[in-house]
Structure formats: C-alpha cells, structure tokens
Amino acid sequence: MKFEKIKLSSHARKRMRQRNIPRNQIMRTLNEPDRAYPSGDKMVAERSTQAGNVIQVVYVETPKDQADAFIVSLVRRPGEVE
After folding, report:
1. 44 in any annotated domain
2. Does residue 1 fall inside a structural domain?
3. Is 79 contained in some domain?
4. Which residues contact 79 (CB under 8 A, 6 or more apart)?
5. What is the pLDDT of residue 80?
6. Which of 3, 21, 47, 53 has a Cα at 20 to 30 A from 80?
7. Into how many domains does the chain fold?
8. Can you give the pLDDT at residue 44?
9. Which residues contact 63 (CB under 8 A, 6 or more apart)?
10. Are 69 and 59 within 8 A, CB to CB?
11. Which domain holds residue 64?
12. Residue 17 falls within a domain, yes or no?
C-alpha cells in the first residue's frame, strides 16, 4: 500500500521531536520499508538509514475517508534492520 496521508498521535509527535525524526523519513519508512510486520493489532515498518540507524514506525491503517495511517509511535535506534 502506498501511504500519502498520515496522522500522528500526540505520543508520536513527541517522539518525532525527541528523536529528531523528520516527516519525510516517516513517509519513506512507511512506503519503502526494509521490513514490515504485524505487532498485536498494529503494524511496524522498519528502515535502515545512511547514518547507521533504524527508524521504526508503529502504525494502524485507517479507513479510506481518513488518513492512510495513524502513527502510534516512532523509534530511532543504532544498527541495521535484521
């Protein structure tokens, strides 16, 4: 699925600022993940960055009349996608 519109939870916005994750990096992780998998009732998309980090986007797909994805949380960690 191609994600064009996203909505961020207040928690995700806070993590975005704390972890210095720009919106374009979130979109790229969603649309071009190195790995994507379900986690409970949510989905997780992961992508390695050129800086040697992994961006992890935790999201829920939403109904067509809303944003394509509701972003629940964001993580930046050192390493590569396994």
Report:
1. yes
2. no
3. no
4. 52, 53, 54
5. 87
6. 3
7. 1
8. 97
9. none
10. yes
11. 6-73
12. yes
User: What is the chain written as a DSSP string?
Assistant: -----EEE-HHHHHHHHHTT--HHHHHHHHHS-SEEEEETTEEEEEEE-TTSEEEEEEEEE--TTS-SEEEEEEEEEES---
Question: Going residue by residue through the chain (82 aa), what tens digit of pLDDT does each one get?
Answer: 688 889 999 999 999 999 999 999 999 999 999 999 999 999 999 999 999 999 999 999 887 767 788 999 999 998 888 7
- Fill in the amino acid letter for 28: R
**What tokens does 22 get?**
């720009």
Residue 67: is it exposed, middle or buried by C-beta count within 10 angstroms (0-12/13-18/19+)? middle
- pLDDT for 1 equals 63
The pLDDT value given to residue 82: 79
Whole-angstrom Cα distance, residue 17 to residue 6? 16
